Amino acid sequence: MQLSISLSLFNAGDRPMPAGLGFHPYFMADAATTLRFGARSLWLSTPDMLPDREAPADALGDWSRLAIVRGDRLIDNVYGGWDGAATIERGDGLRLTLTATGADWLHVYRPPGSADFCLEPVSHMPDAIHRGTMPILPPGGTASLSMTIAIDKSDQTLPKSDAIA
Does the predicted model carry a pTM greater than 0.85? Predict the structure, then answer.
């Protein structure tokens, strides 16, 4: 079973325009849920949660191996050079694979102590408009982003009380 979603943005104007696209799917995590993805770098944030400086992707933890998602600290990090795939494995055996095209960035967000978390494939880093790194769409140009979430377990075995959000 899978869900596929696509976004497209067309510049019908006569001037170039900044254009960024992203998805923000949330997932529920049991105590044993792990996450895995590959990226080139992590952007460390200021106290205002804006990206400040680039660091190795594993500077705050290694997501390239299955790492536990739940915890008591805030996670609000953006990863550059994302490889376009992330795997979520829950303790009940449910496995989800999120893939995206048109997204070079992956934002990982988990509120402190929460059972939910968000994986955000995006075409740009946070605050890109102020950093001068926002993609520019020329007149008549189109930007696109697509995402697929594949579920690797049958509907009959999904738990009723801890279903995917």
Answer: yes
